[in-house]
Amino acid sequence: MQDKSFNNPLKGLGFSAMGYGLFSLQDAVVKWLVETYAVTQILFIRSLVIVSVAGLVGGRGSVVALARSRNKVALATRAALILVAWLFYYSAARNMGLAQLTSLYYAAPIVVVALSAVILKEKVGWPRWLAVTVGFCGVLLAARPGGGVDPVSAGMALLAAVCWALNVILVRLISRSESTSAQMLVSNTLFALACALALPWTWKNPDLFSLALMLGLGAAGGLGQFLLYEGFRYAPASMIAPIEYTGFVWAFILGYMIWADIPHLNVVAGALLIVGGSLSLVLFERRSALRQA
Known about the structure:
This protein is mainly alpha-helical. Helices cover 79% and strands 0% of the residues. The chain contains 13 helices and no strands. The longest helix has 29 residues, at 39-67.
C-alpha cells in the first residue's frame, strides 16, 4: 500500500481530532458504567462490538489478508501494548488523584514526537515541538498537579503513557501495509479474549439501559479507532501527537454536560493553551501545504 503520509496532512489532523473526541466520549461512558459494572465486562462487550463491525466492514477479504500478513507479531505487540497501558492506567488510578494521573499520562504525545524522530525518521521541526510543549503546559495548568505522589503509582502512569506512545508509533508503521479493519480485528479480538478471562468472577447481568450504553460504547470506540488509524495514513505521528491534547478539553466539556462539573479558571486557561497549541499546528501545516503546492 502506498504511503500517503504527506499528501493530505490536514485530512489526517481532522480524522485524528474526531477520533480523540470519540475517545473522550468513550471515557465518559466508561466512567458512568464503572460505578455499577466491572471494567473487564464493559471492555469485553465494547471489544465484541468493534470486532463484529470490523469483520462486517472488512469482510472475508480482511480475514484472508490478515492470515497472509507478515506483520502478525507487530499487530499482536500493538494489541498487548494497549492492554498493558489500560492495566497500568487503571491500577495507578487507585492511589492517585485524577489531576495527577492525567498530567502524567499526557506525557504520551511528547514521547510520540521523540520516538517518531528516532524510529520513524520523521523530520520533527520546531512547530511540532512547540505545539506538543504548549499542549502539555496546558494540561499541567488545568490539572493542577501537586501534593505527594505515590512513586509506584506515578511509575505505572508513566509506563502507561510510554506504552500508548509505542502503540501510536506501531500504528504508523503498520498502517503502511495493513488495512484499518485488520488492525481493529487483531487488537480488539485479543483485548476481548484477555477481558473474558475475568468474566466468571466479574460478570453482572446488565439492564437494558446499561446494555445500550455498552453497545454504544463499542460504536464510539470503534469509530474513534477507525478515524485515528486512518489519520495516521495521511499525517506523520509527530504531527498528530499534539492533537491528542484536544481529548483533555472534551473530557471537561463532557464532565460539565453529564455531571455538572464546573471547571475552574485554571481549567479554562489550560484548555485555551491546549486548543491554541493544536490550532497553531494546523495553521502551520496548512501554510506549509500551500507553499509546497
